Amino acid sequence: MTSIRALRQLSVSCRLSFGAASSRFNSSTAQSAYENILVTAPKPGVGLITLNRPRALNALSTALFQELNTALRQLDDDKSTGAIVLTGSEKAFAAGADIKEMKDLSFSEAFNTNFISSWSSTIPGIRTPLIAAVNGHALGGGCELALMADIIYCSSTAALGQPEIKLGIIPGAGGSQRLTRAIGKSRAMELILTGKSFSGTEAGQWGVAARVFDTAEACVQGAIDTAVKIAGMSSLSVKAAKEVVNKSHDLSLRDGLDYERRVFHGLFGSRDQKIGMAAFAEKKKPEWSHE
After folding, report:
1. Could you tell me the pTM of the whole model?
2. Which of 179, 271, 275, 286 gives 20 to 30 Å between its CA and that of 105?
3. Is residue 142 within a helix (H) or strand (E), and if so which, with residue range?
4. Torsional class of 268: left (φ above 0), alpha (ψ -120 to 50), beta (otherwise)
């Protein structure tokens, strides 16, 4: 598999699937060798993964997730990558799971193979911040994939939801858990029991999305801009900050506060704490060592 560093040395323009965006995102980028995704570097320190199954509206499959998980692990291991953006096309972030792959499965096949466990096993372990830029349809597995990200940006016309009930099943990659934590039991119950979708505007109003944009191009650009800002911070403190925020879902308030304080104290043993505070006192821009 071509490495991320080798990819960055190629002078191939990034090909986003929605027209006008491509001219804006083509500097310092490279074409990936994957079949279902594109991996590029639109800005220094930023990895951009674009789901690339346009004929299937980026329907999710095991083959796609194998590539996505590989790309995420490579970017996470790459010290020059400080943030990752995940997006799809203007029409679809990911319109759902590939039904052809699962329609004939029996219970024993699904259970014994732990079907779709690989879809949600890698992202929670990625320490590099992940921003989902959601445009178009993000339904079923597509909504679940977006919810796995650390930050969600979306366009106002995006359509998110968990319509699995209409197929005689339920969400299987975290939708019932992450959506409920994001918007509360009553609203999540209504959406999951009816299969009703919600708009990008509603995602912003309900706290699912951190920001909402008028266009798909602005959404992806906004995600990249935020990724640049994150990548410009100390990677040590960024990883620590992501860890303590995520722990807030797992711990009681008291235990979470204790955990946060221990991590806070630990950062005083880092070089970047000294660099950052010295730069602040001297009114200079810090030059991080990432140590």
Report:
1. 0.86
2. 179
3. helix 141-148
4. alpha
